[in-house]
Amino acid sequence: MQARGMTGVDEIEAIMHAVEEHQELYRNALPMIASENVTSERVRILLASDLSHRYAEGEVGARFYQGCRYIDEVEGRAIRWAKELFRAEHVNVKPVSGVTANIAALFALTSPGDTMMALSVPDGGHISHSAYSVPGLRGLKLEEIPFDVREMNIDIDQMVRAMKEVRPKLILLGASLFLFPHPIHEIRLAADEIGATVVYDASHVLGLIAGAKFQDPLREGADVVTSSTHKTFPGPQGAMILCKGSLKNKIDRAVFPGTVSNHHLHHIAGLAVTLQEMLHFGAGYAAQIQANAKSLAQALYESGFKVLCEHKGFTESHQVVIDVRELGGGDAVAKRLEEAYIITNKNMLPFDTEPDSPSGIRLGVQELTRTGMGESEMIEIASLMRRLLIEGESVASIKEDVKSLKSEFQNVHYSFDDGAAYQNPFHG
Predict the structure, then answer these.
(1) In whole angstroms, how far apart are CA 220 and each of 181, 247, 283?
(2) Contact 71, 262 (CB under 8 A)
(3) DSSP class of 245
(4) Per-residue pLDDT tens digits for 362-390
(5) What is the pLDDT of residue 428?
(6) Cα separation of 171 and 119, whole Å?
(7) Contact between residue 291 and residue 208 where contact means Cβ atoms under 8 Å apart
(8) Torsion angle, CA of 165/167/173/177, rounded to 10 degrees?
(9) Rounded mean pLDDT of the chain?
(10) Helices 375-389 and 330-339 meet at what angle, rounded to 10?
């Protein structure tokens, strides 16, 4: 029903206005959500193309609909370039999200009643790794991966013992709170003893993997890599699955027709372009992400914040995690930062039990890096956060300084039109 006193045109204008206001916010803000990024202009053009209207059920060269000759060309190139970038034996680019990629992998590789292991949500596991999501849908018995809170990583000694005791059919690695590489090689050795499959959810760190940073899960022993394509990997929202050639048929059947009917073809085109960007510029982009994360973490620590894992360099990924209990807790701090146009998220830490009132905040530098920021800007951001949260300076004052800083970083970098004036990702 229409709102009283508003016409259909008015309603549409309200939507247009909300989107314009959103873009204005992000044009001026410091976006530091660890699960987001911005695409290049070429990708944005493709996302608005006629591909967004079309269907291409089936595989390249074997579609159920006609009119797919050019779609086949696009998807074929995306698959080929993903294989090249990740040195993967097989790639499926059809999943429409990281969760659907995880659904496909777990349905392909397990049966109801099987046991699997994954990190708990407080220890960093993604919600799709929990009993509320994919494992529950599949009817799996879920065991938690042992976690070392001080090291913010898997406790490998306890993990190996637990694997031998519960004998899981599948081990799901990767995380949503993800500071350090997981011990894939050691887990692979133990998995071979019990006949378990190793799946690695690379959603947060795929861009770092593409740039030969962080770790190389396929070479270290993962059988399957699932991932979204829009976090450190700066593509359109969507997902892909990389796997050993021996698992090709199981994975492909679980994707189509198992979990995806028609995949999002405009996203496949955007993904293809992003794969080329990362083939050419990924190493430099990943290195700068790591440098920026370390610089931000060090500057925050020196500014008086309780940044996790100082004893091991804070982070090896795009993420920085702060315990903000003494500043009011994660929810209050994230809201305070948002008022000043610093966009972050509250985050559970391993000792938390209530997701709505966690102890931490999580910062990601991948989007700021994509728009050209370096170590000096990270130091400036740490200073802004100190002035707001520790020194108690006014929101209005900090917001103006945030807007001033952001005004110099409006263009996408690490693309074929690096820094071009028309590449402002915040313009409609």
Answers:
(1) 11, 17, 19
(2) no
(3) G
(4) 999 999 999 999 999 999 999 999 999 99
(5) 44
(6) 10
(7) no
(8) -40
(9) 94
(10) 110
**Which residue type does 179 have?**
L
Q: Answer for the pair 110, 138: CB distance below 8 angstroms, yes or no.
A: yes
Q: What separation, in Å, do the N-terminal and C-terminal C-alpha atoms of the chain show?
A: 29
Q: Please write the tens of the pLDDT for every residue from 12-32.
A: 999 999 999 999 999 999 999
| Angstrom distance (rounded) from CA 344 to CA 305 | 15
* Positions in the chain whose pLDDT score sits under 70: 1-5, 419-428
Q: Is the peptide bond before 112 cis (omega within 30 degrees of 0)?
A: no
Half-sphere exposure of 42 (CA within 13 A, CB side): 20
Per-residue confidence (pLDDT) for residue 177, from 0 to 100: 96
DSSP assignment string, 66-101? SS-HHHHHHHHHHHHHHHHHHT-SEEE---SSHHHH
Closest C-alpha among 198, 208, 260 to residue 233? 208
Query: What pLDDT, on a 0 to 100 scale, did the predictor assign at position 424?
Result: 60
Residue 64 neighbours by CB distance under 10 Å:
11
pLDDT at position 3, please?
54
Whole-model pTM? 0.94
Three-state SS for 136? helix
User: What does each C-alpha distance from 355 to 35, 127, 203, 330 come to in angstroms?
Assistant: 18, 11, 21, 10
In sequence order, what E strands does 214-268 have? 224-228, 239-243
Q: How many residues does the chain have?
A: 428
Q: How far from chain centre, in Å, is Cα 9?
A: 37
298: CB partners within 8 A, 6+ apart? 314
CA 339 to chain centre: 24
| DSSP character at residue 362 | E
- CA–CA separation, 208 vs 336, rounded Å? 30
pLDDT of residue 46: 97
Q: Which domains does the chain have, with CATH numbers?
A: 44-276 (3.40.640.10)
What is d(CA 170, CA 140) in angstroms, rounded to the nearest whole number?
Answer: 10
